[in-house]
Design brief:
The complex is a heterodimer. By secondary structure, chain A is mostly helical. Helices cover 76% and strands 1% of the residues of chain A. Chain A has two domains: 2-40; 69-235, Orthogonal Bundle (MetI-like fold), CATH 1.10.3720.10. Chain A has eleven helices and two strands, in the order ααββααααααααα. The radius of gyration of chain A is 23 Å and the shape is globular. The longest helix of chain B has 34 residues, at 2-35. Chain B has a two-stranded antiparallel sheet. Chain B is built from eleven helices and two strands, in the order ααββααααααααα. Classes of the chains: A mainly alpha, B mainly alpha. Chains A and B meet through α1, α3, α4, α5 and α6 of A and α1, α3, α4, α5 and α6 of B.
Chain lengths: 291, 280
C-alpha cells in the first residue's frame, strides 16, 4: 500500500514536471500558429526590415514592417543597461567594499524594494516627473527614448546591484588578503583586481538584464511616445511590446493585423530565447572551466 | 596610477547615493501624493464620474486584482513546487537536469505581453472562455511559475543532505521523507516564495490587458467573469488625462501599499520560520 502511494506520488511529481515543460511548448505553439498566416501575405524580409506599419487601410495600402519597433526595443534596452550599470556597479562596489555586514543586510532589502514596484507605477511616476522634466528641457511633448531608458534603468537596478555585489564578494574573498599582503590599497585592488576578475559574471548579469528590459511593456509604453519612428535618444519611438499592447484591442480576430501582432510577439520571444541560450552557453562554459 | 582607486571610490559612493535616492524618491513621491486621497469611500466604492474613475472608489479593482492574483498563485504553485521537487529529489541525470533548467529559464524569459497573446489565442478564443479572470490567471501563472520554482528549488537544496539521507537509511520512502521532513522544513520559504510570486503577478498589467481585465466591472462573482484590476485601472486613469490624476495617485498608493505589505509579511514569515541549520 505504502509502496503504491510512493509510486503514485513519484508519478504525480513527474507528471507535473512534464506539464511545466509542456507549458513552454504550448506558448510557443500558440504564438507560432497565430503568427504564421501572416507570412503568406507579407514576406519575412519585408516584415523584419520594412519601416512602414499601416495595419488598417485608411490611406490605400496596408503595410507591415516592424524594423523601427525592433530597433526601438533594442535601443531602449541598451540605453537602460548603460545607465543602470553606471549607478548599479558603483553601488555594488560600495556594498561589497565599504558596507559592513550589518549595513549590507539593511541596504540589500532596501534596494530590493525597487523590484517590488509594479511597472505601471514606474510608468506613472515617469509620466508625471520625467516626461515633465524633459518637456521643460525643450523636448517636444517630453516623451522620448531617454525617458524610457532612465525608467527601465531604475527597474533593472535591484537585479544588477545584487548579482554584481554577490560576485564581487566572492572575488574579494579570494584576492583581498593577497592584495593586502602586497600592500595594495583597498580601492586600487578593487579597481584593478576584483572588478576585472568579476567581469565575466557581470557580463552574464548584463545579458540577463537586457533580456528583462526587452520584455518590459507598460513603463516603456507610457513614456516613449509611441510613434513609429527610428529611435533617437530624444525622439519618440515605439517598442514591440507596446505595439502589441496598444493595438491588440483593436485588431480584428483573424485579420492580417492580428496575425502581424502575433508575428511581432514571436520576434520578441525569439530575441529573448536567443539571449537565454547565450546565457546558458556562457554559463556552461564557465562551469567547464572551473571544474 | 592612484587616480584609478580614487575614481572607483567616488564611483562607489555616487552609485549607492543614486540608488538610494531613486528608492526614496519613488516611494516618497507615491506615498505623499497618494496618501491624501485615501478614504473609506475611496476604498469601498465603485468608480464613478462623467469620465469613469474621476470620482468614487476602487473597490471592484481591489477585489478583482485579488482574484487574478489568487488564481495565478493556485495555478502556478503546484507545478512549480512539483518540478522543484523533481529536480532536487528525483532527477538523476545531469543532462536532463540541465535541460529542464534551460526550459524553465526560457519560460521566465518569455515577455509578459507574449504570455497575454498566448492566453488570448488559447483560452479566450480556442476554448471560448472569453475575457475572464481564469484566462488572465493562466497567463499570470505561467509568468510566476519559474519565479516560484527557482525559490522552491533553492529552499529544497538547502535542506541538509544528511537529514534526507538519514531518513532514507531508516527505510523511509521518498514520499514520507518529502512530506514529513523536506516540506515542513521549507514551509517558510515555500509560502513566502508563492506570496512574492503573487505580488509580482498583482503588479503585472501586460498579460491581462486583453485576456481578462476590463475598464469597468462589478465585483466578480465567478472566475469565469471579467473583472477590474488595479494596474489596468491605474493605466486607464492616467491615459484619461489630468482630470483623474487624484484617483490615479490614490490607486497607485493602494497598489503599492498592498504589494509592499504582503511582500514584507512574506519575508518576515520566512525569516521567523527559518531553520536551525541556517541560523548561526
Amino acid at each position: 500500500m505504502r509502496k503504491k502511494l510512493d509510486k503514485i506520488f513519484a508519478f504525480f511529481i513527474c507528471g507535473m514536471t512534464v506539464f511545466s515543460i509542456l507549458v513552454l511548448g504550448f506558448v510557443i505553439y500558440f504564438i507560432v500558429r497565430e503568427a504564421l498566416p501572416l507570412f503568406s501575405e507579407v514576406s519575412v524580409l519585408d516584415f523584419l526590415f520594412g519601416s512602414r506599419w499601416m495595419p488598417v487601410d485608411y490611406t490605400g495600402t496596408v503595410s507591415f514592417g516592424i524594423f523601427n519597433f525592433i530597433a526601438a526595443t533594442i535601443a531602449v534596452s541598451f540605453t537602460a543597461l548603460a545607465l543602470a550599470l553606471g549607478a548599479g556597479l558603483g553601488a555594488a562596489v560600495f556594498l561589497a567594499f565599504v558596507a559592513t555586514e550589518r549595513l549590507r543586510s539593511f541596504l540589500y532589502p532596501f534596494v530590493d524594494l525597487l523590484a517590488g514596484i509594479p511597472s505601471v507605477i514606474y510608468g506613472f511616476v515617469g509620466l508625471q516627473v520625467l516626461v515633465k522634466l524633459f518637456l521643460k528641457a525643450g523636448v517636444p511633448t517630453g516623451s522620448c527614448v531617454l525617458a524610457a531608458g532612465i525608467l527601465l534603468a531604475v527597474m533593472l537596478l535591484p537585479f544588477l546591484v545584487s548579482s554584481c555585489c554577490e560576485t564581487m564578494l566572492k572575488e574579494k574573498e579570494k584576492y583581498e588578503l593577497v592584495a593586502c599582503a602586497l600592500g595594495v590599497s583597498r580601492w586600487y585592488a578593487a579597481a584593478t583586481v576584483i572588478l576585472p576578475a568579476s567581469g565575466r559574471n557581470i557580463l552574464l548579469s548584463m545579458i540577463l538584464a537586457i533580456g528583462r528590459a526587452m520584455g518590459e511593456t507598460m513603463a516603456v509604453m507610457m513614456v516613449m511616445g509611441n510613434a513609429n519612428l527610428f529611435p533617437r535618444l530624444l525622439g519618440k519611438s515605439e517598442s514591440i511590446a507596446s505595439v502589441i499592447a496598444l493595438e491588440m484591442g483593436t485588431a480584428v480576430y483573424g485579420s492580417t493585423h492580428y496575425h502581424a501582432l502575433y508575428a511581432a510577439g514571436m520576434v520578441l520571444m525569439l530575441l529573448l530565447f536567443l539571449i537565454n541560450g547565450l546565457i546558458g552557453l556562457i554559463r556552461s562554459r564557465m562551469e567547464g572551466e572551473t571544474l | 596610477m592612484r587616480w584609478i582607486g580614487t575614481f572607483t571610490k567616488i564611483w562607489a559612493y555616487a552609485g549607492i547615493s543614486a540608488v538610494c535616492a531613486a528608492v526614496l524618491f519613488l516611494f516618497g513621491y507615491v506615498f505623499f501624493q497618494g496618501a491624501g486621497i485615501i478614504s473609506v469611500e475611496f476604498l469601498t466604492e465603485a468608480p464613478k464620474g462623467l469620465v469613469l474613475g474621476e470620482e468614487g472608489g476602487i473597490w471592484p479593482a481591489i477585489t478583482g486584482s485579488l482574484c487574478f492574483t489568487g488564481t495565478a498563485m493556485v495555478l502556478a504553485s503546484v507545478p512549480a513546487a512539483a518540478s522543484a521537487l523533481y529536480l532536487v529529489f528525483y532527477c538523476r541525470s545531469q543532462r536532463l537536469y540541465q535541460a529542464i533548467r534551460l526550459v524553465i529559464q526560457c519560460i521566465s524569459g518569455i515577455p509578459s505581453i507574449v504570455l497575454g497573446l498566448f492566453a488570448y489565442s488559447f483560452l479566450v478564443r480556442d476554448l471560448n472562455l472569453g475575457r475572464c479572470i481564469f484566462s488572465a490567471g493562466v497567463a499570470l501563472a505561467v509568468m510566476i511559475l519559474p519565479f516560484i520554482e527557482v525559490r522552491a528549488e533553492k529552499a529544497f537544496r538547502e535542506v541538509p543532505a544528511e537529514l534526507v539521507r538519514s531518513s532514507y537509511s531508516l527505510g523511509c520512502s521518498k514520499l514520507y521523507t518529502i512530506t514529513r521532513i523536506v516540506l515542513p522544513a521549507c514551509r517558510g520559504e515555500l509560502v513566502s516564495g508563492i506570496i512574492l510570486g503573487g505580488c509580482y503577478a498583482m503588479g503585472a498589467t501586460a498579460p491581462m490587458i486583453f485576456t481578462g481585465a476590463v475598464a469597468y466591472a462589478a465585483v466578480p462573482d465567478s472566475i469565469f467573469s471579467p473583472a477590474m484590476a488595479l494596474p489596468l485601472h491605474l493605466y486607464l486613469l492616467v491615459a484619461q488625462g489630468s482630470t483623474s490624476m487624484d484617483t490615479a495617485y490614490g490607486t497607485a498608493f493602494v497598489m503599492m501599499a498592498m504589494i509592499l505589505l504582503s511582500s514584507l509579511l512574506a519575508t518576515a514569515y520566512a525569516r521567523r520560520s527559518q531553520n536551525r541549520w541556517k541560523r548561526s
